[in-house]
Amino acid sequence: MLSLLGDHLLQRLQKQTEGALYHRVFCCLRDAITEGILPPKTRLPASRDLAHELKVSRNTILNAYEHLQAQGYIQAHTGRGSWVAENLPESYLTVPGHEHLAEQPNQQQLKHLSKRGTAFLESAAASPYQWGAFVPGAPDVTEFPHAEFGRILNRLSRQPEISRLIYSNDGGCLELKQALADYLRVARSVRCEADQILITEGIHQAVDLVSRSLCDAGDQVWIEDPGYWGARNILRINGLCINPVPVDHEGLIPDHTSSVPKLIFVTPSHQYPLGSHLSVSRRRQLLDLARYHGSWIIEDDYDSEFRFSGQPFPSLQGLEENTPVIYMGTFSKTIYPALRIGYMVIPKSLVESLKTVAAELYRGGHLLTQRALAEFIQEGHYAAHIRRMRILYGKRRAFLIELIERYLGTEFIHEFSHAAGLHLVLKLPEHSDDVAIARMALSRGVKVRPLSRYYSDATRSQAGLLLGFACVKEKDMLVAFSVLRQCLKEHQIAL
Question: What is the CATH number of domain 4-89?
C-alpha cells in the first residue's frame, strides 16, 4: 500500500520526463520540500522503503538523498535517518512557477466572482481576532467543564447508534430538542414544544434558512441600525432589500411610513450592539404590525442568559399566543463558538416546510455531539455552568466599568448600556475616528471594534468602541485598558 508521499512522488514523476532517474526523484523531493508538502523537521522514508514504493532501485533513492543533503535540503543523522532541514536554501523558497502570485492585486482575484459575491466580500466584517482583550462577544472558553462534557461524549462515542451517524432530516437530535424545549419554557418564557425546534449550526445558518425559505429577491427586511453585521450580510447576499431602522433606549423604533417588510430582524432582550431593551409597548407594536402585514419577526436571543442585575427580560416570542415570531438562540456564548450548535423555535405553520428545506440545504449532522449536549443539559450541568459564568462575567464587567469611570469618566459609558451581555460600548466624543483608534489599538495587541462600522446609515452613526470583557481576566484587563487609554490620548481624546 502506497504512503501519501509515495503516491505524490509517483504522480510528479509522470510529469518529470527528462534527465536521469535519480535526478528526477531529487527534483520531485526538492519541490515537495519547498512547497511545504514535506515541512521542516519531517523524517523522510527509509531509502529501501521509498525505493519499494516507487519501484526503483535503492541506489536511485540514495543518490537523490545525497544530492538533497549536499544542497542543504535534508540532514542525515546516524541511526535516526534523514530529516528535512529546519532552514532551507534561500534560492528555493519560492514555489517554482508561482513567483508572482503574491503580487497579483485583489481586484484580479475578485474579477471571477459574481456581482453578488463581490459585493458580499466588500462588506465582509468577520474578524480574524476572536480571543483576548477586548474581543466583543467572546466567552471564556477555558471555564467550560470540558472534562464533564467529554465524559458524556466519550461514552456515547464508544457504541454509537446508527441513527447518530447518518444524515438528519428531522431537524436535529430529538433528545436535544426536548431538553431545549424544557429549558426555554422556564428560562426564557418561550412557548414551544420539542417538535417546533430545529437545530442549526448557529444564528448565521438560521438566518440563511429563513431568508431563503420565506423571502424572494427584492423583498423588504427591517434591521436594527446599528445592528449585527453578520445577519445584514446574509440577508444581502440572498438578494433582500435591507431597510435600516434606528433604535433608541426602548429598542427598534417601528417605522409605519416605510415599505412593508417581509422580515423584521430584532435583538429585543439586549440590542446588539448598543444594549437597550425592547420595551413592552414597542413589542406589541411590532407584533401588531407583523400580523397586519403578514410579516415574520426574527428574534435573535444571542446572549440573554447573562443579565447581572434586575429582572430578566422574557422572550418576545412568548409575549402572546401564536406570535408571528421565529425565535433563534445559540450555544456559542454559553458554551463555546466552535461547538456550532444553535436552534430555532418555529411557528407550527412553518415547521415541516423549514425542516425539509434545512435538510435539503444543509444535511444536518453532529448528532452525537447534540445527544451529548442533551444529557449535559438534562443532568443540570448546563444551568450550573451558566450560573457560575454569570457571576464571573458580572465581576469582570464591574471591573471594566470601574476602570472607565476612574480613568475616563461616566460620560464614556453608553447611555443605553444595561447590566447584561458580554460587551459594553465605550462612547467617544462626536467626530472621533473610532476606526483609526481601533486600528491603532489592534497594532498594540488590544482588539476593540469601532461602533461606527455597525451602522448602515452613516448619517446617524455614533463613534464608540465595543469592549468585550468576558474572556479577559482582571489583571490582563488592566494592562489592555492602559494601552487603550494611550491610544485615546494619541488621538486627542480629552481624558
Answer: 1.10.10.10
Contact 318, 188 (CB under 8 A): yes
pLDDT at 192 over 50: yes
Rounded to the nearest 10 degrees, the angle between the axes of helix 47-54 and helix 4-15 is 60
- Each residue of 175-184: pLDDT tens digit? 999 999 999 9
Q: Which residues pair with 82 in a beta bridge?
A: 76
CB burial class (10 A; 0-12, 13-18, 19+) of residue 383?
Answer: middle
Domain 384-491 is in which class?
A: alpha beta
Output the pLDDT for position 91. Answer: 46
d(CA 268, CA 282): 10
Alpha-carbon distance of 406 to 272, in angstroms, equals: 26
The grid coordinates listed for 478 are: 488592566
| Alpha-carbon torsion angle 460, 274, 319, 331, nearest 10 | 130
* Domain 146-379: CATH architecture, name and number where available: 3-Layer(aba) Sandwich (3.40)
Is a pLDDT exceeding 50 seen at residue 407?
A: yes
Residue 108 has pLDDT above 70, yes or no: no
Q: Is the pLDDT of residue 491 over 70?
A: yes
Residue 20: CA count within 13 A, CB half-sphere = 10
Is 463:429 a contact under the CB 8 Å cutoff? yes
Q: What is the pTM of this model?
A: 0.79
